[in-house]
Amino acid sequence: MAEGVLFNIAEGIIGSLQKLAREEFGLLYGVKDELKKLEKTVKKIKTVLLDAEEKKANHEVTEWLKSLEDAVYDVDDLLDEFYTEARWRQMVIGNKISKQVRLFFSSSNQLVFRLKIGHKIKEIRETLNVIETDRGFHLDERLQEARVLTRERETHSFVRKEEIIGRDKEKREIVGLLLDPIPEENVSIISLVGIGGLGKTALAQLVFNDETVKKHFELKIWICVSDKFELNVLVKKIIESAPSRTQGNLELDQLQNDLRKLIDGKRYLLVLDDVWNENRGKWLSLKSLLMGGARGSRILITTRSKVVATISDTNKQYILGGLEKKESWSLFKQMAFKTEQESENPSIKEIGEEIVGKCKGIPLAIRTTGRMLFSKNQENEWLAFKNNDLSKVNQEAIDILPTLKLSYDILPSHLKHCFAYCSLFPKDYEIDIKTLVNLWVAQGFVKSLDQSKSLEDVGYEYFLELAWRSFFQEVTYDEFGMISSCKMHDLMHDLAKSMSGMEITIVVEKEDNFSENLRHVSFDYSIGLWLIEKIPTSLLRAHKLRTFLYVDEYLLSFHDDGSIKSFCNAIASNFKSLRMLSLYALDIRALPNSVRKLRHLRYLDLRRNPIERLPKWIVRLQNLQTLNLSDCDMLVELPRDINKLFNLRHLMVDGCIRLNHMPDGLRELTCLRTLDRFVLSEDSCITGGGAGLGVLNRLNNLTGSMSIENLWNGKNMVSEAISANMKEKQSLTSLSLGWKENITSDVNEAENGWLSSLTNIVNLSLKECKTYASSSASRIPFFPSLKKIYLWNCPNLKGWWKQSALIGSPTTEYEHQHIQQSSLSFPCLSLLDVWNCPNLTSMPLYPHLEDEAVLG
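^ thats the sequence. predicted structure below, dont judge the formating
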């Protein structure tokens, strides 16, 4: 991964150097000449990196790249520090805060800063020059690949038949084993064994959904086991996967009783997918609970290990091989060609069949390679791929990573480290796409050459390209057709891990042998608690760490303030290059002052901490792009001068139930894309205190969802709402509006008309709304994009139009025409949810309602 990552960083460095020159910060601090020399050196390095990447570096080159890596990262940190300091000084001097501040930025102090930064630049440049000239190596040899074991994943029982090619014979044979009445035991075990990527899960899904199988078994249950083979966990999964589910955290004795009630006397089929457990004692404990089924019950295990099949007392092992040549070609054609005619080109077909042969019948390898070649239409491109890439792969039947790596090798540089970075997430982890993109942006992986495109939009395009190349799977979509989450196949995760080498690791157990080359680390619940007690010495030596990520969702810390403070101090003192820091749910009441040292920080995750106020110094973290304060239920206010966080793009405060107003400085954060909650102060309707909706006027880059709380009725509210300029926020798709509960006065349509500017909103919630409109229906569409509307606890709400058609059937020709006009107000509505709105008597109709309206 090194050459791709460094190439991209080098590009970023050159851009930063040129930006500094344009803004004359270099001239201001007297280091312009040194910056120009540094830019020249980095450009030479970039050329060599491109050569190394294109020609596939050998081991010697890899060692050279490692020596270069620290120096390049040092340049990145130095320029980041220089630019941040310069911008801060410019801001403070511009504001003319105090005499003491002006003295601090006197010519003498500027001289000290110039000497310090100049010395650092010169030192790093000289280091780069030495490394750049020391490259007496051959760049035409391959990197030696490291093999890694695969581990955990998650599966489900559904599969589309048309997606499974060439497994009809295997399906018939396994179905035959499941229906075979010969075994003497009531419950017999069948193991489906094969290497990763062969399609064991897909075949088991196909069998599980077979109509004959459905009719034969009274009860069918699908469980993904993976490496978490614990009795209580598995029993709970089995019970919850059955039609009659048990909820709650029950004790093992109760779970055992429920399991026996579920299966005793019934002919059942239980699929245990992806089993790794080789502890016979654990298996016997589970098996004893599963033997109560009626005669003919079956347990189908899928596993990569024959040892697992043996210790599981398997009655029959079914060894799954690769696809036959014909089926392999058929699958490859689906992936690689747009039309059947293209696949019949004799020369292309000959090359394609040679490529398919290298995949050894492994469906995942065939799919990945086919996807990779889909956009390569010319014969010479296919031939070059076969001769220059595939022929160098030492393909073995027990290891498909070399084949999978082909798709990685041809990735553009900017996608290589985006993919490798995903090895931070555990296998089977459901990756939230917005979070992933924000993490990529925080690490500087995303570059936008088009000024009209945001970094987040470009990052999403990066993800789509990786997903198209089959680096991700099990994608889910939101209601707008955007991918909201995904998972990685375990083999792809292995590939990502092998590409990241020693730079990225998931801490899965207590250890103290971390590499000093480590740059990104993640951990889960149990490890998080362990790290708070004592961070391992070897981890503290990884001074270049850029990511400290907590990926679990259930960490609850019960440590005292001293332990938490010590933990944070250790992080801030040793990992000064951090771009991302997760302090999720650590019971932090006051953010330790040491965190202010993290000047490079882009992403700070403080979710679920009982913080009342953020420290004033947090605005010195000027590079901060994402500040996640979700569910900090003790937080009462945000920093007044939050405008100094001029790079802030995402501010999440959903669940901060005590937050009672917003700072006026928000109005200056025009880069803001996420603001999920806006709270009007309690006295805004009386005194105008606190930030009003006018703060939102220029925040036109907001996207996604936002709630606005503590609205009131009256002319003041109308002017407030108009000043928010909501019609310009075209990327805002979901809006929840909540009124003050003690406001009961009615208003007329003119005062409520500001809502009509929300023409782009898809989801709308109105809570505690006491308004009604008084004029006749309008011919102008009210909410042309609206798909879902929620009206909750609006006891005085009477409707949009006083004379609008009642919810029901028309009785006169006039009403019929009136309904046709009114229906334009919700031309796309698919869901209407009304709760506690007893006086609601008039609503525009919703002719395209797909889901049932919920009226309560």
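The first strand starts at residue 187 and ends at 193.
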